[in-house]
Design brief:
Shape: globular
Strand content: 15-25%
Distance between the termini: 10 Å
Order of helices and strands: EE
Number of helices: 0
Length: 72
Amino acid sequence: MPRGFDASGKKIENARILRVLLNDTLVQREYELDAPTGSHNTELVESPANPLMLQGDHNPVAFRNMYIRPLQ
């Protein structure tokens, strides 16, 4: 079972962002998410695995060379 959830799927701790780099610059480290972030999809509930959703800020945006690794 992924970290943060017990064997029954109940949330037992908040999600944490360990490290985020943008163009090799550290922009976030050891950040705790105390609630789900905003999204147009309000049907999703917190669970051990949900889709990753990326969002721009009112302008066209492009993402490339992204690496996402689940931790064991």
